[in-house]
Amino acid sequence: MELPAFPPVVLYSVPLFILLMVLERVSYWLHPDDDEVGYGGKDTATSLSMGLGSLGWDVLWGIGTAAATSAIYLLTPLRIEFHWWALPLFLIAQDLCYYWSHRGHHMIRLLWASHVVHHSSQTFNLSTALRQSWTGFTGFLFYLPLAAVGVNPAITAFCGGINLVYQFWIHTERIDKMWRPYEFVFNTPSHHRVHHASQGGYLDRNFGGILIIWDRLFGSFAAETERPVYGLTKNITTYNPLRVAYHEYAAIFRDLRTRRVREWLPTLLRGPGWSPGAVAAQPTPQPVRAE
């Protein structure tokens, strides 16, 4: 079956993104809230610059990742045909892969060096959704299972575009908690505010894209119970897009220079906070009861 010509949903959504950002900014003028972070001029400019820059880099990285994914698809004898009625099933499959990709980008420092860009803002508004990485060349690894079972990479890319567009509107403080059944199944602004928070109980939570069900199933869900503090556990003090894009790679390079060769691999593949001197906490010895 010949695939249909999938529309570039992200590109078509750009005018909507701009309109919603303008409306959100106006809403802060009309109804200010001292508890909400709102917009900052330099921060917003940086987010927009990162978004525009990512468009060009995504084209470059996309050539290599598309080639690798297509190679897996061509090698497998399996084929899953596309039908429009089955689109929700493809979206669910893509969203599951997205969950593990997103989780992996928080748990593996080399991947975090790319994803940290999206978390580097200390504000949380619709412009934050556009603060995207310029080094997104590793995420395709998590979608190779779809190609291996016969899902055409063009279908996965189309579903990925829908996933990305969905996630735009959840980057806001203007929407409180929603209808409870919807909150249970889908990712919402409340869930995503938790994801962008830097305080301990919220760290590395709510990785879902469209669905929050994955976090509930795999033990990474946290409900919003206190006001989030946005940003990183150690924030960067720059609005320079180049430094925002590459600061964690520079930090990794500095760490590799000062560590032994046998420590290089764990430096790259363990969590962002790992260091050779870190010692796991030992359980407190319990007194032995006399029988």
List the helices and strands and how they pair.
Blueprint: H1 9-30, H2 41-75, H3 87-107, H4 109-115, H5 144-148, H6 153-168, H7 180-185, H8 189-195, H9 213-218, H10 241-258, H11 264-269
Helix pairs in contact: 1-6, 3-4, 3-6, 4-10
Mean pLDDT: 92
| N to C succession of SSEs | HHHHHHHHHHH
Q: Assess the beta-strand content as a share of residues.
A: under 5%
Counting structural domains, the number is: 1
Report the radius of gyration as a whole number of Å.
Answer: 21 Å
Q: Profile the largest sheet.
A: none
Low-confidence stretches: 280-291
Shape: globular
Helix percentage: 40-55%
Could you give the distance between the termini?
74 Å
Secondary-structure-derived class: mainly alpha
User: Count the helices. How many?
Assistant: 11
Number of DSSP E strands: 0
Describe the structure.
The protein is mostly helical and 291 residues long. It has one domain. The chain is built from 11 helices and no strands. It has helices at 9-30, 41-75, 87-107, 109-115, 144-148, 153-168, 180-185, 189-195, 213-218, 241-258, 264-269. Helix 3 packs across helix 4 (109-115). The longest helix is centred in the first third of the chain and has 35 residues, at 41-75. It is globular, with a radius of gyration of 21 Å. It starts with 8 loop residues before the first helix and ends in a 22-residue tail after the last helix. The relative contact order is 0.14. Mean pLDDT is 92; it is low at 280-291. One of its GO terms (molecular function) is oxidoreductase activity. It comes from Catellatospora aurea. It is a multi-pass membrane protein. InterPro entries: Fatty_acid_hydroxylase, Sterol_desaturase/TMEM195.
